[in-house]
Write a structure and sequence with these properties.
The structure is a homodimer of 289-residue chains.
Chain A: H1 36-50, H2 61-68, H3 72-85, E1 88-90, E2 96-98, H4 103-134, H5 146-152, H6 154-167, H7 178-198, H8 203-222, H9 227-245, H10 249-270, H11 277-282
Antiparallel strand pairs in A: 1-2
Helix pairs in contact in A: 1-3, 2-3, 4-8, 4-9, 4-10, 6-7, 6-9, 7-9, 9-10
Chain A binds a DNA duplex (30 and 30 nucleotides) through residues 35-37, 60-62, 70-74, 76, 92-96.
Chain lengths: 289, 289
DNA sequence: CATGCTCTCAATGTATACATTGAAACCGTC
DNA sequence: GACGGTTTCAATGTATACATTGAGAGCATG
């Protein structure tokens, strides 16, 4: 069954197994983690995303085991997770390499993002509506149910607050080199977290979305956005958040679609190959030079 | 970052690593496979899908190693894949159990399916259009380019043929107990394969879709469809295939949405808990008898 | 000099031995 | 008799040793 999926562009997984159970205060850097397999996976993932391990670089168990100071067994498990996450690809029967990522991959990744993020926006807005009808006249004075109230309708409030903070991101603010950008990306991360929270009843969708974020981090590194694009992106995010907080699913989906279109366009503008090179090479026109 | 995804309903992955490289003729049954890890994974996945390993059953390395006749190492890798596929869940720090699947899970799974399958239908239809414009007056007499021609516009033809075969599936045909049902499911599998082929340029989406099919197989076992539903489902599949072969993306997406809605409704009708039990339990209305 | 074969080797695949850890049973004490 | 501590044990986590296999270098031969 199931035609093999072309070659690259592996899987859509994530939901870190036992990762990021950082105890918030291990060492100077966040180097230590739970098990050795977790450390190995985190280190390798980070290295791939940061570009230290270039696309196409071979991943051998012995070498990485030596580099990370663990035995082959945890490295083996880490490799398996990398393959599941799509960050590594099996080339040949016994060769594992860092997955390549080019313009075609980005386009393919966005084919998936469109589907996932639009649905997520719709569902988040629907949740806002559901919360609204569930607790119509909830006064903040209900003392004994205060915690319950905070749990009851957080979605709208969270997205409203995030939308307002996105509104403060202007090109002028982004002038300061890295710290502000980090702040912006942190804000995006908060948005993602709010979305995850809103998708608590759709864990499959949430997991699929989470799995795309690793690849997006790689893409982000590949095509550094300029300040203007970042400001636009912030505005687009704000529009999405506002639509969700209003419970307007269609507007949220449309804003998401717009944002993804702009993001993809911007990325392709900054990337080497514009795309669609393979089909042109496959065909065999008789007049090719 | 990234809020942990609720608990159950893990990941969306798949793209079998090196599985199903069956050499088409190993033994009497298709029991033998490539590596021991592949065999272990296939065996465990099959056991879980078939219900031999019930939801909640603990998965211990030693026990499964003994049962499958391999050592712990391949079993370990198989477990990792099961977790990545969402068929197993880590309960506690050192306990792996077969993932549970109930009505809520099915609803959550369909939240993902809606997103993925609609996008897939749209993209497949778009591919049909692209092929049509790429080779407008392609005559079947171009001998030297015959193979190329067969590769050039297969999408429309494939879906057209599948649609016609779906049209032959009637309630009367489905009377014969299992063989006919198998035939129907084989037809669905062909549809899936055609879809995968059409999604060759969107491998991320294709992989995500593939990862949902395992769970759908479990659901199928849970809620056996009656003949009437199967016939309806065949008609719905046929409508989707026809829309794709016509290159009508919106119609294909709408037909997909309809099919998924009907399928989910039918499943919930056959499943123990209708769903949405958690929220009702969380809330504390004062007048709940 | 080109070509095919063999042979070595390095890497994975597998098995097993050792370390670690969490839980449950058991026992002693209050 | 209940409770707390201790101890045992079974399971995973890790390391390493052995088996297997594919690729490449090297060599012999046409």
């Amino acid at each position: 069954m199931v035609v093999e999926a072309s070659g690259r562009g592996q899987a859509m997984t994530g939901v870190g197994r036992r990762s990021e159970n950082r105890t918030a205060g291990d060492g100077p850097i966040g180097a230590a983690a739970g098990t050795a397999a977790d450390r190995a996976y985190d280190a390798l993932r980070s290295a791939i995303v940061e570009g230290e391990l270039a696309p196409g670089a071979p991943l051998t168990e012995v070498e990485q085991a030596a580099r990370l100071g663990v035995s082959r067994t945890p490295v083996r498990e880490a490799f398996a997770r990398l393959v599941a996450a799509g960050l590594a690809t099996e080339r040949g029967p016994r060769t594992l390499v860092v997955s390549d990522i080019d313009a075609d991959d980005v386009a393919a990744l966005f084919d998936l993002r469109r589907a996932l993020d639009e649905q997520a926006a719709r569902l988040a807005a629907a949740r806002v509506l559901a919360e609204r009808t569930a607790a119509p006249g909830l006064a903040p004075t209900t003392i004994s149910a205060a915690a319950t109230a905070a749990d009851e309708a957080p979605t709208a409030a969270a997205f409203r607050a995030i939308a307002e903070r996105f509104a403060t991101v202007t090109p002028a603010v982004l002038q300061g080199d890295d710290p502000q950008r980090h702040g912006y990306y942190a804000l995006v991360a908060e948005f993602d977290a709010a979305l995850d929270a809103a998708l608590s009843t759709s864990p499959y969708l949430a997991a699929a979305i989470a799995s795309t974020r690793v690849h997006l981090a790689r893409v982000r590194r590949l095509a550094r956005d300029d300040d203007a694009r970042l400001a636009d992106s912030a505005a687009e995010h704000g529009a999405i958040a506002r639509a969700i907080s209003d419970g307007d699913g269609e507007r949220a989906a449309a804003a998401t679609r717009l944002h993804l279109h702009e993001a993809l366009t911007s990325i392709h503008r900054h990337l080497p190959r514009p795309g669609a090179a393979r089909r042109a090479a496959d065909r065999r026109p008789e007049e090719t030079s």
